[in-house]
Design a protein that fits this description.
- A hairpin with a 4-residue loop joins strand 5 and strand 6.
- The protein is globular, with a radius of gyration of 21 Å.
- Helix content is 34%, strand content 28%.
- About 1% of the residues have low confidence.
- The protein contains twelve helices and 17 strands.
- It has 366 residues and is of the alpha/beta class.
- The strands form two sheets. Strands 4-11-14-15-3-16-17-2-1-5-6-7-8-9-10 form a 15-stranded mixed beta sheet, with helices on both faces. A two-stranded antiparallel ribbon has the order 12-13.
Length: 366
């Protein structure tokens, strides 16, 4: 599990630090405070990035894992300029420093389009280079760290190694895989179902989704089957079957359908959720996340959720308590490119709320 994140050079963040991370992390703050950027930065750095939505070709002309992720981040903001991912539009290496459990540290860099670099924690002045769409196995290059950019030149590379050293591989397990869920998933539910439903059925997980939809959205469902035409066959209690199009489901039901399906298929080590309150009734959101939190507790998934809704914040805190999940609330501010985070525990949020203050405007009370 990641305990703290230090990042430099990503989007509007010249430098930023977020600490006291727990299994569930709820991020609040004003617009342009770096909330979405932290989600994207974690998504971009994961070893495996799950993207179940088809990306228009103009956003992703290449098909490696890294570039598909890069294309998705541009597509979700409707931005064709790759340089927008970097601070001041300067394509410099993105630097990450993570502190994991037991104070283990991991420092690594992205060099846009070319290399992923990991500082070897056991040998002074060593680095491991691999492609940005890397996998744990395969040939990886090792080199000395002199000037960072000089190190990228072929003459400075020392030798090939067969695999990442075990101690580094263990630390990278926190970044094993990431799933980013945003409002795009509601409009692209058919893509998600086409990508995931066969795996859901093969693993016998469809009943979990049926139960969640029935309880959260009062859909009188006994069984679901996905068809290539994009229909769901809904079996009513009187055993008469009716084909119901995905398009006819409400946005809340679509959101529940996509997020539950994707989590069950991806089983990510990092789950990144942006503004779950969008298009979702509070009761439906509560019941959906009641199931989501059951999943992440069983999988040991670390979760990051951004929200602007005080009601959503309180509901998520209550659900964490119900499922015995550790939770931390992080209030973000971003000034002159410097991201700062104020971590708060659930009792502190309750005290502030009871006093009549709005936790979302914490910076105005300080």
């Amino acid at each position: 599990m990641i305990r703290s994140i230090k990042i430099a050079g990503f989007r509007g963040i010249r430098e930023g630090f977020v600490d006291e991370l727990e299994q569930v992390n709820i991020i609040i703050g004003k617009n342009n405070s770096g909330k979405s950027s932290i989600l994207e930065a974690l998504f971009l750095s994961a070893r495996e990035k799950f993207i179940f939505i088809e990306i228009p070709r103009r956003y992703s002309e290449f098909y490696s894992g890294y570039l598909s992720a890069l294309g998705y981040l541009l597509y979700r903001r409707m931005d064709n300029d790759e340089k927008s991912l970097f601070y001041n539009y300067e394509e410099k290496p993105l630097k990450y420093e993570l502190v994991l459990e037991n104070e283990k540290k991991l420092t690594y860099y992205f060099i846009p389009r070319y290399y992923f670099l990991i500082e070897e924690p056991t040998v002074e002045n060593k680095a491991i280079f691999t492609r940005l769409d890397w996998v744990p196995e395969g040939t990886i290059e090792e080199g000395e760290i002199k000037s960072f950019l000089e190190t990228l030149k072929p003459p400075s590379l020392r030798r090939d190694i067969d695999s990442i050293p075990q101690i580094v591989d263990e630390r990278l397990s926190a970044l094993r895989s990431a799933l980013l869920v945003d409002t795009l998933h509601i409009g692209n539910v058919k893509d998600v179902m086409a990508s995931c439903w066969e795996k859901v059925k093969m693993q016998g997980l469809d009943e979990l989704i049926v139960d969640a939809l029935r309880e959260a959205y009062e859909l009188n469902i006994v069984n679901l089957e996905y068809t290539p035409s994009g229909n769901w066959l809904v079996t009513l209690k009187n055993e008469r079957k009716h084909a119901v199009r995905l398009d006819d489901l409400g946005d809340g039901a679509k959101y529940a359908l996509t997020i539950l399906t994707e989590i069950l298929v991806a089983k990510p080590s990092i789950l990144l959720i942006e503004e779950p309150e969008c298009h979702t009734h509070p009761k439906g959101l509560e019941l959906t996340f009641d199931v989501v939190f059951q999943f992440i507790k069983k999988m040991g998934t670390q979760t990051f959720i951004t929200t602007h809704s005080l009601e959503t914040l309180n509901k998520l805190i209550q659900l964490c308590k119900k499922h015995s999940l550790t939770v931390k609330i992080h209030h973000f501010t971003l000034k002159n490119g410097v991201l700062t985070s104020k971590p708060l525990d659930a009792p502190s949020v309750e005290v502030v709320t009871d006093l009549g203050a709005d936790i979302r405007f914490l910076d105005e009370y300080m």
